[in-house]
TrEMBL record:
Parts of the chain that traverse the membrane: 32-50, 308-329, 349-369, 374-393
CC terms in the record's Gene Ontology section: endoplasmic reticulum membrane; nuclear inner membrane
Entries under InterPro entries matching the protein: TMEM43_fam (IPR012430)
Keyword terms of this UniProt record: Endoplasmic reticulum, Membrane, Nucleus, Transmembrane, Transmembrane helix
Signal among keywords: no
Membrane topology, from the record: Multi-pass membrane protein
Gene Ontology biological process: lipid metabolic process; nuclear membrane organization
Name this protein carries in UniProt: TMM43 protein
Organism (species): Furnarius figulus
Length: 399
């Protein structure tokens, strides 16, 4: 059943739902479903950890190969046939053939990308729930609160617990979009789509030098408002802001064109991906004027960060999988509070030790084909958590 309690304001209300405490067989059935999900998560962790090591080592070897082969260009304004098909390094200012326009707001800019960001003033629902047991039933108390905010995505008010008084429009009258220049160059060299995609350092475009484009649009700060009163917006009002990435021409208000550093294969006047012997692709772009060593150092750092992030994700998946698969032991004793708490602590410690050992073992297998000595050392290290756990168990007393 449901019990409603209003706080006196339409912006907040509380709902209490209750259900009978599940029986032993019902909890056992739910635990069985969790065990199946845990098994899938457990197996996924093996795949993630193993493939991640191969990817990390392959990327590292490809970067080392690229560093040994790359040729710095003497000039970005002339194309040398001697470098055809080779991995080259160049730095220079971005340039585009035509400016990017947004005719709806009378705006143009020489840049690689121009993004129009549209936000609508909408109702947003927030939930705050807590569960407790009362009279043999499990009750859930949920507080729903509503606030009006600017959101770039349409919030579906039909999913609200109480839509009356908090209804949002179903669509925006003006859509967001990102325009990309069809021709981007550094000197005489044309960047491919893969390199252009890496230019994503967006900066807000100041609208202080622009006029109001229409009678029903008002400029306020760095926004165009579709609102009768921007200081007191109503639900359904819009505001529009603009961002740009890769300034490609000198602008009196924005400054000089952005410089980038590129490492890619020269093919005519184009810079295309370079396929390494390790099976990886080198197609690198960084903002600024960087040396060859600085670029590859950044790439190695990025590879290391990604490797450790995936290792942590793999270990967490394995820990969660083991915890779900062993949850049945907790369910069998959850009638006894003291025993239940001890079993819960033991299961978490077991999951931690096994997940750590199996993660290290999987990582060592992933290194076996590339660095056998390191693989052996990591394999030996995987035994440490289990040995430590066994030494914590007190020996049985002599009879």
């Amino acid at each position: 059943f449901r019990q409603f309690s209003d706080s006196g304001s339409r912006k907040e209300h509380v709902k209490i739902t209750s259900e009978s405490k599940p029986g032993f067989l019902e909890r056992l059935s739910e635990t069985s479903g969790g065990m199946l999900m845990g098994l899938v998560t457990f197996l996924l962790a093996f795949y993630l950890l193993f493939t991640n090591e191969g990817r990390a080592l392959r990327t590292a070897k490809s970067l080392d190969e690229g560093l040994s082969l790359v040729v710095p260009l003497e000039s970005i304004h002339s194309i040398s046939q001697q470098n055809e098909g080779r991995l080259v390094h160049l730095s220079g200012a971005l340039s585009t053939s035509k400016p990017l326009f947004d005719p709806s707001y009378g705006l143009s800019i020489h840049a690689v990308k121009l993004k129009r960001n549209v936000e609508m003033y909408q109702w947003v629902e927030y939930e705050d729930s807590k569960e407790y047991e009362e009279n043999g039933e499990i009750k859930k108390e949920t507080k729903y609160s509503y606030n009006t905010e600017w959101k770039s995505e349409v919030v579906n008010s039909r999913n609200f617990d109480r839509e009356i008084g908090h209804k949002n429009p179903s669509a925006m009258a003006v859509e967001s979009f990102t325009a990309v220049s069809p021709n981007v160059q550094v000197g005489s060299f044309v960047l491919t789509k893969g390199l252009v995609d890496k230019i994503d350092d967006f900066k807000r475009l100041s609208l202080s030098n622009l006029e109001d484009p229409h009678a029903d649009v008002t400029r306020g700060g760095d926004y165009f408002y579709h609102s009768e009163n921007p200081r007191r917006p109503e639900v359904g009002d819009l505001r529009v802001s603009f961002f740009y990435a890769g300034l490609s021409g000198d602008d009196p208000h924005l400054g000089s064109a952005d410089k980038v550093t590129v490492i890619a294969r020269q093919r005519g006047d184009q810079l295309v991906p370079y396929h390494t012997k390790s099976g990886d692709i080198l197609e690198i772009l960084h903002p600024g004027d960087l040396s060859v060593e600085e670029v590859f150092q950044k790439e190695h750092q990025s590879n290391t960060m990604k490797t450790w992030a995936l290792r942590a994700a793999g270990w967490l998946s394995m820990f969660v999988g083991i915890s779900l698969m062993t949850q049945i032991f907790y369910t069998l004793v959850d009638w006894f509070p003291v025993v239940r708490d001890l079993v819960n602590i033991g299961l978490k410690a077991f999951a931690f030790c096994v997940a750590t050992s199996l993660s290290l073992l999987t990582i060592s297998v992933g290194w076996l084909f590339y660095r056998p000595l390191w693989a052996l050392l990591i394999g030996l290290l995987s035994v440490v958590p289990i040995v430590v756990a066994k030494t914590r168990v007190p020996p049985k007393k002599q009879q």
